[in-house]
Structure prediction request, 674 residues.
Amino acid sequence: MNAHPCTSLSWIGSALVAAALALTAAPCLAAKGKIPDKKAAATPAKPGGKPAQAAPVAQGAGAAYKEISAPQRRPVNVSPCDNKEAVSAHGPYASGDCSICHAKNDPKDPGPAQKPVNKVCFSCHDEFPDLFASLKNRHIVAEENCTNCHNPHNSKQAHLLVSRPPVLCVGCHTKIKDKMQARVQHGALTQGASCVNCHNPHASKVEKLLIAMPFDLCVNCHSKDDITDGEGKKLANFKMLLDGNPVHHAPVADKDCSACHQPHGGDNFRLLGDFYPSHFYAPFNPENYALCFECHDSKMINTKETTTATRFRNGTRNLHYVHVNKPDRGRTCRACHEVHASKQPFQVRDSVPFGSKGWLLQVNFKKNADGGTCDKTCHTAKSYVNAAKAAVNTQAAP
Amino acid sequence: MTAARRSLLVSCAVLWSGLHSPLATAHAANGTMIADVELNVVQGGKRHLLGKEPAQVLFFFRPDQEHSRAVMKQMAQCERDLAAKPLRWTGVVSDRFAVTELKAAIEQAGLAMPVVLDVGDAVYAALEAVQVPFVVIVDGAHKVVAFVPFMKINFCETVKARVLFQLGEMTASQLAAVLDPPASKVNFDASLARRHFTLAAMLFRSGSFDKALEAVQKSLELDASRAAAHALRGNILSTQDKCKDAIGAFDKALALDGAQADALAGRQACLDKLKK
Prediction:
């Protein structure tokens, strides 16, 4: 097909211009000699060779789909661009069949779209009504007007997109745009299909239009040995990590990496949602535990005596308080716990780094019915007994 | 809280039957029995923690926590979505929070469920919980059947699925599909055959027979099992006065679907045409 001039690169000014009008305004410049004549278009045929109105088009899809008639959400230029520059072209446009979508088959004057935009689109793309009807998490912009994101003629982008993700997406999702510019950035947004690496722009079974649960998406990349952070530091292979460490932190077990990480970017180390200390020791300050306290009650750390705030207690003596709540060398969460997975209950670490030569000091934690023991570690063997639980167990015994 | 009081709240039983790894969670295991207690209600009056309903939802939250506030709104929607079900909804919150603060948070979230004050966090501790928010689902015998910790994604869907499973309104495989949903990838090729077919039908209707034939052939190359596509090809060929070929296409359609109306009508029209 010969090149078409870009008839107009100017944006349609108002977001309130109906997409139908936008379609009308965009002439379908089909290739010469490939356009069915008007007479043929006006006299459709029926089985057996005689003119007819009906055709065996698959019908019935999306009977439950609630049609939405809405204005264009964004000012989009749906004019075709020069075919030499086009990466994708819509079938009917490429073949010069304007009347598939428009009132007339004249490329210079195709007339208005036959129906509201999505009705026109769905007459061929008939899987979408079913998709929108069957999935709870839908992209309202797609549900309203396909032309919010797609050029129905051709495009310099794949899949007829009016611009490439993430540019297209952050045009509306401005908060995400801000996050993408944060100090710590996520390669998932800049590599591959960008936003579409993780999100289905039409509809999904998972909230936030995620293609799958966060963990299942994250391990697509974070299950390799050669992934590094922005500073070149190697990142964990999570498949290996989790396979070898059966005790998983609850968000990991529930496939919800986003409980702790900001997948779009952030200001904290490792895209964490809030501050988490990177050191073994830190003076006790609740702000140091902001990330953990998003779920865990700070009473676990700052209550000296308790029978309810933690099971890591000897009688009523809160051993979290003993370890952490110190004005100088308080142990941070990472001193004793793995954040993702471990071999020990409560994600207790197997060992902790000691000294500057990379020696690992074993923790030797053992959980028992009424508490636990840490042996030959930072201290000599010390056991704790969860008094209340012991009382229950004693009472329950025959 | 005294050990005696704790002993009233918990008796032991471990019948782990959840879908998670048994080592994965730090809370009371499924099968743990919870003892009923009568507690003060934030909205006024008293209420038993547990009742006789086959599925009872205990929702633990804190009014001073972002995750809780987000989940409270979701739980309000959960309540509405499951309003017709035989459920007992109870919010549980530590009694260390001021009632006025709690009332404001409950109202803001739109929670309809009564919220009981957990004296000294006794119920929380009895469940061996270490974090909030979370939901515990208990059966009519007061046995824990599911524990749903905070999730940023699909929390309400997970709670609803667990409840419906407990009520026998969802199968294990349906529950698994909610907990571990299949990927909703953008599949650009899966429906290509159907799309070519639909385009062919539209081109046929508009009189572009050559293009219609080209499109339906593309469709059949991708998926030859669609009887309607074979019938359409037959109709296009018939329109082009190629009745012999058309009959072959109609026969293929009828081999796939003996009642394919377009193929039956088109084949008969072709036969009539050939007779003439």
About this structure: The longest helix of chain A spans residues 387-396. Confidence is low (pLDDT under 50) at residues 1-65, 390-398 of chain A.
